[in-house]
Design brief:
CATH architecture of the largest domain: Orthogonal Bundle
Radius of gyration: 34 Å
Order of helices and strands: HHHHEEHEHHHHHHHHHHHH
CATH superfamily of the largest domain: Winged helix-like DNA-binding domain superfamily/Winged helix DNA-binding domain
Number of strands: 3
Strand content: under 5%
Largest sheet: 3 strands, antiparallel
Structural class: mainly alpha
CATH topology of the largest domain: Arc Repressor Mutant, subunit A
Oligomer: single chain
Shape: elongated
Number of helices: 17
Length: 340
């Protein structure tokens, strides 16, 4: 009797490191996954970049960036034009002495390697990646929540969303894990500050996800805090005579909130600090003004009268002790010496 086990598609398998799913999958789009799966499947072979493109449907110019992504995720290691799998310290310690075939390399053509080296901007994963056109279209066709989100967003923004805009919403929903109500609150907030565009929605949405703001209550608290910070900045910019300043930076908002809301300095005191800064530095420097106000806060100086008294006391000359002897005391000393 003979036994034959037909594994079908499982007859030919290849290994995929768990790290790819555990750490790299969240921010990887279809392009990066296609490239990685193809090179893993063909590990040990010298791959031509055009062949990779033909097999995966990925544009030739996108392949180096996809490989760099997995290098940054420490799934692949790069040396010149060659790529090799990264092994953990535990794997290296446990592994037997390697022969010439234990680690096989993936080579890229010299022209592609040169182009990558000439690219001064190294690809670093700093934010989630939006899904591609095909994936976004497929999800929109079957995902009822995404359809509702797109419809509500178009109503709030007053325009028809592009596929790229929908990809942003899908990224915030799936990759960043923001609830639909939170995303809609975010869009409404952006419209309220005259920045009703998907670029701002994406930027703020990613930051909210990083900070764990994923409930209506947390979003409402953050929006209220942002409004308060902008009011503080408006107060300061008015006192400083700032015009056409655009959107304040995060650091400027922090400074202004501290000066106005926490330290509670009045407009005259803010102006005094501003003028001293300009007199000393010749320009407006928020960090220098912060140094001035920090000293005043430490001394309990809250108004110009306090400041005047403090500086007058500081400038007053210190009285020196009188080193001359009292004549009567000297006579007593002389008499005592005579008696002795």
């Amino acid at each position: 009797m003979s036994i034959k086990l037909n594994l079908g598609a499982w007859q030919s398998v290849f290994a995929v490191p768990s790290k790819i799913v555990d750490e790299g999958l969240k921010f990887a789009d279809g392009v990066k996954l296609k490239v990685l799966l193809y090179v893993l499947r063909n590990a040990g072979s010298e791959l031509d970049i055009d062949a990779v493109s033909k097999a995966t449907g990925v544009n030739v110019t996108d392949i180096p960036e996809a490989l760099e992504y997995w290098v940054n995720m420490e799934v692949l290691a790069k040396s010149g034009a060659e790529f090799a799998p990264v092994h953990s310290k535990e794997e290296i310690k446990a592994a037997p002495v390697a022969d010439n075939h234990s680690v096989k390399e993936i080579k890229a053509p010299e022209t592609i390697a040169k182009a990558v080296e000439e690219d001064k901007q190294r690809f670093v994963v700093t934010k989630p990646q939006k899904p591609d056109y095909v994936f976004t279209s497929q999800r929109l066709a079957v995902d009822e929540e995404l359809k509702i989100l797109v419809g509500e967003a178009q109503s709030v923004l007053g325009k028809t969303l592009s596929n790229s805009d929908i990809a942003t919403l899908l990224m915030l929903k799936d990759t960043c894990g923001l609830h639909l109500d939170v995303i809609l609150m975010l869009i409404q907030y952006c419209v309220s500050i005259d920045k009703g565009n998907m670029r701002t929605v994406e930027k703020i949405g990613v930051s909210w996800a990083d900070e764990g703001i994923n409930s209506v209550e947390a979003a409402d608290h953050r929006i209220a805090a942002n409004h308060h910070a902008n009011q503080c900045f408006s107060t300061v910019s008015s006192v400083f005579g700032m015009k056409n300043v655009g959107s304040p930076t995060k650091k400027q908002l922090e400074y202004c909130t501290k000066w106005v809301a926490e330290w509670k300095f009045s407009a005259p005191m803010l102006r005094e600090a501003y003028e001293r800064c300009v007199d000393s530095k010749g320009e407006l420097k928020f960090n220098y003004i912060d140094g001035i106000l920090k000293k005043w806060e430490a001394q309990g100086i809250k108004n110009k009268e306090d400041l005047k008294q403090f500086e007058s006391a500081k400038a007053a000359p210190v009285k020196k002790k009188n080193s001359s002897y009292d004549i009567n005391e000297l006579e007593k000393i002389d008499k005592l010496d005579f008696i002795d």
